[in-house]
Amino acid sequence: MEKKLSQPTKILSILIEGNPILRQKCVEVTPDYTGLKSIVERMHTTLDATKIGVGLSAPQIGISINLFILGGTNEMRLMQRKVFINPEVIKFKGARRKDFESCLSVPGITARVERWQKIKIKYYDLDFNEHIELFKGFEARVIQHEYDHTLGVSFHERLTKDEYIKIEKQLQEIRIGNIPEVDYLINSYDKKRIIGEKEREGDLL
Ligand SMILES: [Zn+2]
């Protein structure tokens, strides 16, 4: 029998640039990781609620585990829902192309990032079945962006110097807490009330 959810799936706040959790390399997920299905479900709810995001990594909701999802929608497209557990890049392929990217953890900034056109990646689904799949175009770009988050790397760290200079000031403002208004739940970095992993674990129980 299916267990009924006692409460609607809770939207989680998204960590903002400046939070050290976004700089950590994530740890591998084991099949017995407590609450994994619930975490992924909440990540999907959180991503959908942003109405602009098409990918979300676990560290962005304060959990430093090697996992990201695709899904959500923006004004351009509806992304197919997908979860990537313990992703591992097998190969980057094709040419490198520059295109605009933004990040839910870095509100108000859009910049042109160079990425590989194709990516072959190994990952596990929620039932821990192994997959090896080739992605291209927009999906490949989003995957490279989210994969970077699991390494503790944000998109602005992939910019050329010229592109970085254009957004440097905005980035500094975000880091000191001057965050542009957004229509989704955020958790800005403030040393006094930084969301820790313990606190987030409490949210998830
Ligand atoms: Zn991002």
For the largest sheet, list the strands in their spatial order.
2-3-4-5-6
Sequence stretches where pLDDT stays below 50 over 5 or more residues? none
Bound small molecules, by name, code or SMILES, are:
zinc ion
By CATH's scheme, which homologous superfamily applies? Answer: Peptide deformylase
Mean pLDDT: 90
Q: From the alpha-carbon coordinates, what is the Rg to the nearest angstrom?
A: 17 Å
- Regarding quaternary structure, what we see is single chain
Distance between the termini: 21 Å
Can you offer a commentary on this structure?
The chain is α+β, with helices and mostly antiparallel strands and 205 residues long. The protein is built from four helices and seven strands. A five-stranded antiparallel sheet has the order 2-3-4-5-6. The two termini are 21 Å apart. The chain binds zinc ion.
